[in-house]
Amino acid sequence: MKALLIYPPKKHMIKTNVPEFVDKETGLYPPLGLLYVAGFARENSSHEIKVLDAQAEGMDYAQIEDRIRQEKPDIVGIQAFTFALIDVIRTAKIAKKVDKNIMVCLGGPHVNIYPEETISMPEVDFLVMGEGEVRFTKLLNALDKKERLEDIDGIFFKDGLRIVRSPAKGYVEDLDSLAFPARGLTPYEKYYSLLAKSTPVTTMMTSRGCPFRCLFCDRPHLGKKFRSRSAANVVKEMEACVKMGIREFFLYDDTFSVDKKRAHDICDEILKKGLDIGWDIRTRVDTVDEDLLRKLKKAGCERVHYGVEAGTKEILKVLRKDIDLERVKYIFKKTKSLGMTTLAYFMFGSPTETKDQILKTIDFAIKLDPDFVHFSITTPFPATELYYLGLERGILKKDYWKEFASSPDKGFVPEIWEENLSKEELSGLLKFAYKRFYTRPGYIIKELFKVRSIGELLRKLKAGLNVIKS
After folding, report:
1. Burial class for 228, CB neighbours closer than 10 Å (0-12, 13-18, 19+)
2. pTM to 2 decimals?
3. What are the structural domains of the chain?
4. How far apart are CA 385 and CA 383, in angstroms?
């Protein structure tokens, strides 16, 4: 069985503030989900597995078609995000155009939210639900040996005119049992970040699931239970990457430091191995303290992304963020004092939020003075509690994400939360916030003094231009 896993180009990407896609504005990163699936299948089967990252290879759809003809796969697997659904479906159509007998399998967040709409599309033969590593490998084995597909949990498929549904049962509890992502199947030397000190860069996940209850959380497919890899397993993967020439790591855990002891253990293991690396984490101000920050810094952590979301306690309460603004200020001050780069995320236009509260959030962001800030307009994403609340309260007039999932349209624009402020007013506040934050003379001078090379200066100028364009 020959499988070609494809990460489609983002020609018709819906604008979003999901961290993975925000980062696309500042670099090029590997398709981590696909690489996990590829790594497990290669290690636990004899099937031929290849990965095509169309973004990294700068391919258009004609070139994707040529590659599929060249590879002659039995099955094409595509990572499906709702925000990139048009490109996903177009890629599936191309596979069927090359050879109608090529089986098309979709996995990823979108299929878990809208399985019925996705499996009903004529170009789609299979869905892999939940975490795909084990299930996709089982699917390949069953297809190869012509075994019963009904015996595999977490698989949707078509049997003639009949759709067979086998819901996913649980999550992978032992994350150490998964193979490392198959980075060697992509042009990994091409991945970079404007925030990193060197190239190439890569992404990692050391845990899955988030126990917090934020109203806007958009990762229902990973569950609320925090599951983590051991420190030894995490650092073993880092060592493997270093051997490939990769020394910069962007950790995509929802909240890296849920378990502070494990975070300390990872740092200790990096120090024990003597790894000369740079890395970053995404976390919350209430899951770190000064001792952990010092250990992170010592172990090579260079960047910390904090989700703050609002500068008023009233909106933080609405968003169920459960953090204190004084704690935010304290942790940012400590993080910066240790020489780590800070990134802060804020949202405008949340439920009940007024213009005055947004202006207070902008003031708070400026006083906080992180190295980088990302402002966005609150957008209710599919299957989030925020989205369901909007439908229930009539703020959102129809289930437009479901309509888009059923019939993807290039002209689709997601709605925002226009309770007190219109889209135009929120857009104006967004532009005002970016201009006010990034054009401060003090900020510009501070950043220029940090520049250590012409290359870094050019990367920062490019990042600035991306902010202006977006």
Report:
1. buried
2. 0.92
3. 2-18+30-166 (3.40.50.2300), 191-379+416-438 (3.20.20.70)
4. 7
